[in-house]
Amino acid sequence: MFRFKQKLTQASFIILISSLLTACGFQLRGEYSVPEDITAISVTSFDQYSKITRLIKEQLRLNQIDLVSPSKDVPNIHITGESITDRTLSLYQNTRAAEKEVVYEVNYRVTVPNLGSKDFTATMTRSYLDNPLSALAKSAERKLIEDEMREFSAQQMMRQMARLKTEIEEYEEKQLLEDTNTPADAKS
């Protein structure tokens, strides 16, 4: 009987928490999406075969966006460059680097026809221990960190593109106001 009451209490608690989270509008991270107005997009890059370009195309496919060839009437993401820099955070007693910080940055421009273009930067920072006694493991760890940072940057780019929705809405409202304020004689 005690087990039954315990299970019932746990189930009630889970239902209560779920309903509270649902009522406050909580959504899991990753629910950012590209504006609904953008159903197809072209991707151009400084290097069409780079990892970041492939990851961005993958993220767009996950958001159900069709990838098309560049055209003047199709939105475009142009990846202008990426960079990886590092700096020493701490030193061992023998003045060798003990901990390093890696900064990954990707710059890109989103161009939407009739709206214009906007430049963005996605930046990721990670730190890791730099053990000089394990050089092979250190380089493998560094490569894994860089790949992870590229993946997170591609996701961050999708979140940044979600901000375009407000700009598109503002542009459409502006166009609507201009159309309604234009006299009938000026339209013809």
TrEMBL record:
Domain of life where this protein originates: Bacteria
Would the keyword DNA-binding turn up in this protein's UniProt record?
no
**Cellular localization per UniProt:** Cell outer membrane
Which keywords does this chain's UniProt record carry?
A: Cell outer membrane, Lipoprotein, Membrane, Palmitate, Signal
Annotated protein name in UniProt = LPS-assembly lipoprotein LptE
Q: Which family does it belong to?
A: Belongs to the LptE lipoprotein family.
- Looking at the UniProt entry, the stretches that span the membrane are none
Identify the PROSITE patterns for this entry.
PROKAR_LIPOPROTEIN
- One GO molecular-function entry: lipopolysaccharide binding
Q: In the UniProt record, what gene is named as encoding this protein?
A: lptE
What this protein is reported to do is described as: Together with LptD, is involved in the assembly of lipopolysaccharide (LPS) at the surface of the outer membrane. Required for the proper assembly of LptD. Binds LPS and may serve as the LPS recognition site at the outer membrane.
Q: Does the keyword Repressor apply?
A: no
Q: How does it assemble?
A: Component of the lipopolysaccharide transport and assembly complex. Interacts with LptD.
Q: Which GO terms describe its cellular component?
A: cell outer membrane; transporter complex
